[in-house]
Write a sequence for this structure.
Protein backbone atom coordinates (compact mmCIF):
# COMPACT_ATOMS: atom_id res chain seq x y z
CA UNK A 1 0.00 0.00 0.00
CA UNK A 2 1.23 3.46 -0.87
CA UNK A 3 2.33 5.68 2.01
CA UNK A 4 0.74 8.79 0.47
CA UNK A 5 -2.63 10.35 1.30
CA UNK A 6 -4.61 10.94 -1.90
CA UNK A 7 -6.41 13.96 -0.39
CA UNK A 8 -3.71 16.12 1.23
CA UNK A 9 -0.56 14.51 -0.23
CA UNK A 10 0.95 13.67 3.15
CA UNK A 11 3.79 11.15 2.69
CA UNK A 12 6.77 9.62 4.46
CA UNK A 13 9.11 12.23 5.92
CA UNK A 14 12.65 11.80 7.19
CA UNK A 15 14.47 13.08 10.25
CA UNK A 16 17.05 12.19 12.85
CA UNK A 17 17.07 10.10 16.00
CA UNK A 18 19.29 12.05 18.43
CA UNK A 19 20.87 10.03 21.22
CA UNK A 20 22.08 11.31 24.60
CA UNK A 21 25.61 11.63 23.17
CA UNK A 22 24.08 13.71 20.33
CA UNK A 23 24.91 11.05 17.72
CA UNK A 24 22.40 11.30 14.87
CA UNK A 25 20.85 8.38 12.97
CA UNK A 26 18.34 8.72 10.13
CA UNK A 27 14.73 7.67 10.74
CA UNK A 28 11.47 7.65 8.79
CA UNK A 29 8.17 9.12 10.01
CA UNK A 30 5.19 7.50 8.28
CA UNK A 31 1.66 8.99 8.13
CA UNK A 32 -1.35 7.11 9.51
CA UNK A 33 -2.75 5.86 6.17
CA UNK A 34 -5.94 3.78 5.84
CA UNK A 35 -7.66 2.29 2.81
CA UNK A 36 -11.26 3.51 3.02
CA UNK A 37 -14.35 3.67 0.83
CA UNK A 38 -15.33 7.35 0.67
CA UNK A 39 -17.48 9.72 -1.34
CA UNK A 40 -15.09 12.21 -2.96
CA UNK A 41 -16.03 14.71 -5.70
CA UNK A 42 -19.43 13.04 -6.15
CA UNK A 43 -18.03 9.53 -6.70
CA UNK A 44 -17.66 6.55 -4.37
CA UNK A 45 -14.07 5.32 -4.42
CA UNK A 46 -11.68 3.26 -2.33
CA UNK A 47 -8.69 5.49 -1.66
CA UNK A 48 -5.67 5.70 0.63
CA UNK A 49 -6.42 8.46 3.14
CA UNK A 50 -4.70 9.68 6.31
CA UNK A 51 -6.52 9.63 9.64
CA UNK A 52 -6.40 13.43 9.98
CA UNK A 53 -8.33 13.88 6.70
CA UNK A 54 -10.93 11.33 7.83
CA UNK A 55 -11.51 12.96 11.21
CA UNK A 56 -11.50 16.55 9.91
CA UNK A 57 -14.40 15.80 7.56
CA UNK A 58 -12.63 16.48 4.25
CA UNK A 59 -14.39 13.41 2.83
CA UNK A 60 -17.56 11.52 3.70
CA UNK A 61 -17.04 7.86 4.61
CA UNK A 62 -19.50 5.45 2.95
CA UNK A 63 -20.93 2.73 5.20
Amino acid sequence: MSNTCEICGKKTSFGNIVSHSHKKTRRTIKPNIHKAKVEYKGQVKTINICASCLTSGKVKKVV
